[in-house]
Structure formats: structure tokens, C-alpha cells
What we know:
Its EC number is 6.1.1.20. Belongs to the phenylalanyl-tRNA synthetase beta subunit family. Type 1 subfamily. It is a single chain. The chain is α+β, with helices and mostly antiparallel strands. Helix 4 packs across helix 5 (135-147) and helix 6 (228-238) packs antiparallel against helix 7 (243-249).
Amino acid sequence: MLVSWNWLSRYLDLPMSHEELALRLSLSGLNHEETTTVDGDVVIDLEVTSNRGDCLGHLGVAREIGVLYDLSVKTPEIELSEAGPKIESLLSVENRYTEACPRYTARVIQGIKVGPSPEWMATALKAVGIGVVNNVVDATNYVMMECGQPLHAFDYAKIAEKKVIVRRAAEKETIEAIDHRNYELDEAMCVIADAKEAQAVAGVMGGAVSEVDDTTTDLVIEAAIFTPLMVRRAARKLKLQSPSSYRFERRVDPVGVDWASRRVCQLILETAGGKLAEGVIDTAPEITPNPPVTLRLSQVERVLGIKIDREEIERILVKLGCEHESGSDTYVPPSWRHDLGREADLIEEVARIHGYENIPEDAPIPVAPSSKRDFDVAMERVRSVMTSAGFSEAMTPSVVTNKLDESLSPWTELPALKTETAMLKGARTLRRSLIPSLLEGRANNWASASIHADLFEIAHIYLPQQSNEALPSEQYSLAMVSGCDYLEIKGAIETLCQRMGIADPVQVKAIERSGFAKGAVVEVSCGERMVGYLGIVDPKVLKSWKLPAPVVAAEFSLPTLLEASSLVPQQQSVSMFPSVERDLNFVVAESVRWSELERVVRAAVGEELAGVRYCETYRDPAKDGKDRKRVLMSVSLQLHDGTLSGEQADQLIGQVIGACKQELAAELLS
């Protein structure tokens, strides 16, 4: 923001030097870039942060200086004579796109004479780098640089049917802007149109069709509010950054819209003559005030470490424009400060105006001990287990290409959500799974001769809902890909559950999911909770990434795992009596899974079961028959109140054999 010293002098007395002022503004948050001299006028270049759109005009900077130096700001007084006919007889306005344009105002001036601007206006604009055009255009630019509200003047005679329409642009609609270049628009953009065609890209640039020239005699003065996101998107898409779009992207003062409209009419009447039509067309005259914010004095001292008198705090905040009743702790921020919404924001304002240099470096600030959240503790354990198992942590983008997302999606078959514009080249899709990104990372490592790229990632995925209007479910997930054996990865998962204190055994159920090899993917559960998926990636998917070896992939819902976990170890009684181990070799059908055998054994024994361990699987069709297999397990039995006798052990083992035979048709191999 270029600030003219002479221009500032119109609003307040400046008893300090420009060097002192630049330093003081820097200490209060408006960083000083450089100071130059233009035709004898000192011009200070200030860096204005994105939350301080109110300082993108000389009046806003003057308000800051007035607070810092306790000076009175002289805001220009506006006196208008509405000598023309009623505006409703001359113009109508229809707002069809309130999402992009919450408020649109219009005034009409008749009988003006376009000519050169007065010397004082031209000099002021040149000082801040604005080109001089004519007395009408220069007046709109002057008011914009004065208060930060962009304005636009249309040639009234060139507006078809004397009707202004705020609407969406039609797909592939084109407009010739005032830079006399043609631009193709899309439906997300907002245009200011008449009954025939678009006259301006809202908040970005006016059109050449209704441009003010030497033949113009009547004007329509536009002052409006356009939403930052809409303006930013249109400006980036069209590559049309302008002083107007810069200010709309940082928000404008909703109350100041009408002031700016009257101010520019005043300047045009003074420099170009004419008559102002009676009244104004305003599509949203009712303005909601900012909500009140409570500021506790105790919090000021706690945060800043120093005590500031109530009177000084009140002076600072009232001088900044806040409404306040004496003795109250409630402040209503001014309309031009949309960034003041919390107690912390007011404390920051008090600190920067009071002066950060007045806060001692050794000011005692009470520090309360903090503890890690359960989630942080759990994530540390997850990373510890994964790195111990030989995995390397990866970080991949949340937005992926559509092809990558569709290669594998175990959580949902609903179509993924997409951004309006690509966040990365060719990438618009919010990923529904971490696995495709990890496969891409493994493939890139493979191409670089890093063959053993076993990767894991902890990040969000975005699961769409049935309703198109519902927000996606942001699920925090853990995913991994590895070239190891399926059972090794399952073992790593079981170790992870054990380290997180999950008492329920890990169980798997065969399912089918596209992207995984047929018959090689399971749904993983801990007790009654379904926590994720584990399987071998489909060779067709691997081929698309030129990965030659089989890859095992898994993905889990971390919130679900956290629900089942017990991060603080609990005391458990340990039996002081010896255990008895028995090996059992069952012949079962090929379809019987180990998880089923384990479940039956645990149910048959009960509290006396110290553990059951899988040993091996052996197949001999000649002896056992087709589609049959032998599963060897080790069962450990133990009592807590005495030594288990051989007879008791035999009885318990008999229960196991009977239950396995009854429920799974298992035959004990003698």
C-alpha cells in the first residue's frame, strides 16, 4: 500500500518525521518496505497483512496513526444536493447472485462533462502509482485509495433497457474488458450485466462496452460488496489482478459502501458538474453489526505478562473504533474490522498499540504444565511400531488425480469429491484412501532402484456422504504398503494393537474389494469394531505402476483403533502356578480360517486358557483328502489358584477337541 504524506495530511496533523512514522507503523504491524519521493511528496510503502483490508486506504492508515499518536482524524464531510429526478424512474437493479454479491448500490448522475481532473487529484493519484484518465475515472480511483472501497462508473447511455443485473456468467460467455482484451468466463463467476450482455466482471474489472469516454454525459455509480472467494477465483482464472480485486479479496467495510458512493458523487459533481438523481438503489440496506466481544482484564495481564490500566485499554479500543460502555468488559468492533472476533484479537490490538517494545523481555508469564493428548500418545506408538517393523513414513498430497483415486478405494464406492480448480497439476480429487498414493510412492522408489520401499502414512482421507450437500467425513487413517508376506504384515498389525492396549483379539473376514486380488482381501476387526482392510493388491493395479513383485496393503481408521485402545497399562494378576502346554493337530476344511479355530478354542476353555498359538499349516491331499488341511496349534492352560493337574488338563483339552469337531467338523490327528 503506497501512502502519500501530503494525502495523509488532509486527514490529520503529522507532527512527526516520516522516518519516525514509518518505524512506529512497523512496530504496530504495518511493515515498512521503503520510502520514496515523488514530485516532492514523500511516499511510504507499507506491507498490509491480509486481515487488515481496512488499511488499504489513506483513511484507514490515518486511523492507525491517530490511535498511535492520540491524534484526531478529520474524515471528509459529504454534502450532496439531489437535484435530479428520482432514481427509480431512471434505473432498476436486480441481484440474482447474492452469494457472490451480498450488497449492490447504484446512483445516477446526469449532465456531467468529462474532462481532465483537477491538479490536486491528479498529483495525489500519480504519487501512489495510479494513472490519470479523466475526472470521472480519477474520482473513483481517488475514493478507492482514500477509503479502500472500489467503485465503478458506467456510461448510463450504454446500459440496455436501463437495467442492471447482477448474475452468474453464462458458460463460455465472453467480455471485452477496459484493457480491450477479450476474456472467456464460466458459470462460477459473477458479472454486472444489462438486459443484453455483461458489462463488467464483478469486483475485478469493468467492460469496454460501457466505459466512460469523452462523449459520456450520464453515469451510473456502482458501490458494492463482492465476496472474497468469488473475486479471488475469477481474478486468478482470468489472470486479471487489479487494485479492486486486491481489496475485495481482503474484504471491504460494509458500512463504508454508502459513504464511498456518496463521496465519489460529491467529487464528480465538483469536478464534472451535473445533477445527482434523488435516492439510491440498495439491494441490502440492512447491515448486521459485528457481535460484541468480552475482554477480561485478567486475561490481558496473563497473556502479555504486564499490567495495563483499564483506562488505557478502553482508550486504545475506543480509539480503534470499538463501541464501549464505560466500566463494561464488552466491546463491539467497528464495521471495518472484520478480524476482531475473539478476546485474543482485542488483546493483540492492545499490545501492538501500547507498544511491544514496552513489554519487558523478562516479564514473568505463568506457564501451566501440559500433557499429551491421548491421540498424540497413540500416534507416537503407531509410528514406533511401524518404524520398528521396517516401514518408512511418507507424506503425500491430499488431492490426487482421478485415475489414482479410482485405482483402489476400500472404504466407499461413492464418487470422490472434487475441487473446482486443480490444486496440483491435473489433481482435483480429494482422496478416499491413502493406499494409491503409497503405491505411487513405492513405484517411484522402485524406478529409482530403491526396491524395498515399505511405506506407511498417517493422514486424512475424505469419504463422501450419500447427500451431495453433506460435508465429507474426514477420517484420520493409517495405511501401509509392503513387499513382505501377508502374514508378516498381519503380525505387524497385531503388534500394533497389542502396543495400543487393545484387549480384543484381531479377527479377519474375507470380503471382495476392487483394486485387491480376488480372494486376497479381508476386513479387520477388533472385537465388534471394524477397523480397516488388509489384502494383496491386484496385479493389474501393480502393472499400471510397473511394480513386478506382489504388494500387501492395509488401511485402518485411527479413531476406531483409539476407541478400542487402553493407552495406560492396567494392573493384571499373574498366576504364580506353572502352565501346561498341549499341541493339537486338527484336520479341517480348506475354508476354515485360523481366526475361527482360535475363537472356538477360547470359548471352549474360558478363564483357564493362558494362550493359544498358531504353529503351522500342512496339506497332504493323498492322506487327508482334497480341500483339506492340517493346522497345528499350541494351547497353554493355567490356573490362578493352584497347580493344574493332568486330569484337569485332559478334561479342558477334551472340551477343545469336542467344540472344534462340533462347530468346525475338525478331526484330531492322532
